[in-house]
Amino acid sequence: MSFSLPDLPYAYDALQPYMSAETLEYHHDKHHNTYVTTGNKLLEGSEFEGKSLEEIVKGSHGVNQALFNNAGQHFNHLHFWNWMKPNGGGAIPGALEKKITEDLGGVDKMKEDFIQAGVTQFGSGWAWIAVKNGKLEIMKTPNGESPLVHGATPILGVDVWEHSYYIDYRNRRPDYLKAFIENLVNWEYVEKLYNEAV
Ligand SMILES: [Fe+2]
After folding, report:
1. Which CATH class is domain 94-197?
2. Burial of 49 (0-12, 13-18, 19+ CB in 10 A)
3. What is residue 189's predicted lDDT score, i.e. its pLDDT?
4. Whole-model pTM?
5. 8 A C-beta contact, residue 153 and residue 193
6. Who has the most CB within 10 Å: 65, 119, 163, 173?
7. If DSSP codes are grouped into helix, strand and coil, which group holds residue 23?
8. What pLDDT, on a 0 to 100 scale, did the predictor assign at position 84?
9. Which among 57, 97, 48, 93 is positioned nearest to 75, based on CA atoms?
10. 1.20.120.450, 3.30.565.10, 1.10.287.990, 3.90.550.10: CATH of 21-82
11. Ligand-binding site membership of 61 (annotated)
12. What spacing in Å lies between the alpha carbon of 77 and ligand 1's midpoint?
């Protein structure tokens, strides 16, 4: 299989005022598209041709860094568009909320720790909620890495590369992360990934 760029699951201006149409145009049409086209060039003729995206991400990690960077970012961004929705945030589906309370010390603590992971990720990267050995964990990773290469399954991730927030928030990464968790997260999609992971 080769990589392809999906359409956004909403209009470019649907996440305003928390994420602008300009940000989504650059982020989706330029940045994600570059991961797709570069990834396809690197995939062609490699030992990973014909594998699934998750197999490519896991298999290329530490083996083919250039392919890993692009395949990893393709995987991350495919989910990232779905981790947001218009009028997001709000109530967390019951079973997932219960698990967050059990493993992450409650919804408020989870939000605080998720934001803190994003704030303290030095340079480019991602902050995550992942399932590892049946338990939820807050994680952070550099560049195009994800919990997939750390034996875990991501169920929520936020892009803290500057391309994700600089147009709207300039250097105020904490404000971007707060807006993401309070006003953008599509918890139904998080729940779907959680159910698939356990
Ligand atoms: Fe990004």
Report:
1. alpha beta
2. exposed
3. 98
4. 0.97
5. yes
6. 173
7. helix
8. 98
9. 57
10. 1.10.287.990
11. no
12. 6
Cα–Cα separations (whole angstroms), residue 21 to 10, 24, 130: 11, 5, 29
Is the Cα dihedral 1, 74, 69, 111 positive or negative? negative
Taking the C-alpha atoms of residue 69 and residue 37, their distance in angstroms, rounded to an integer, is 12
Give the distance (Å) from ligand 1 centre to CA of residue 30: 10
For the chain, the domains span: 21-82, 94-197
**108 annotated to bind ligand:** no
Do the first three CATH levels of 21-82 and 94-197 match, i.e. the same topology?
no
Q: 178, 185 in Cβ contact below 8 A? A: no
User: Consecutive 10-residue runs of the chain (198 residues): their mean pLDDT?
Assistant: 94 98 98 98 96 98 98 98 98 97 98 98 98 98 98 98 98 98 98 97
**Is 159 part of any known ligand binding site?**
yes
Q: Do the beta carbons of residue 103 and residue 178 sit within 8 Å?
A: no
- Check whether 163 is labelled as a binding-site residue: yes
